[in-house]
Amino acid sequence: MESNALRHIVMIKVADKENIVKMLQKLEILGEGIPGVQWNTFTVNTDIGLIETNYDMVLTIDFPDKKNFFEYQTHPVHVALVEASTPLIASFSVIEFYLAPKQ
C-alpha cells in the first residue's frame, strides 16, 4: 500500500531567545488554518534546553499529499509569515519525507 502523505519539518534557531514567544504566536496563527490547504496534523514544539546548541523550536506538518504541500508553500498566508519571521530567525533547517502507510 503506497502513501502519498508527507511530513514537513522546520527546525528554527531564533536570533534572540526573546523571539521564541513571537515566533510561537506567529506559528499558532498559521496553525489555525490556511483557506484551501488541508493538513492532517500541525504541531509546534520548543526545545527543553538541555543542550545550548539545539534549535529553539520545531514545526511539524503532515500533509495528505504533495498538492496540499505545494499549495501551502505558495499560499500568501505562508509567504507573509516567512517574510515577517525572517528578521527573528538566526538559522533554520527543513526536511520533507513521505510517511509510511498505516497498516
TrEMBL record:
Pfam families tied to this protein: Dabb (PF07876)
Domain Stress-response A/B barrel, residue spans: 6-97
Source superkingdom: Eukaryota
PROSITE patterns in UniProt: S_R_A_B_BARREL
SMART domains tied to this protein: Dabb
Protein name, UniProt field: Stress-response A/B barrel domain-containing protein
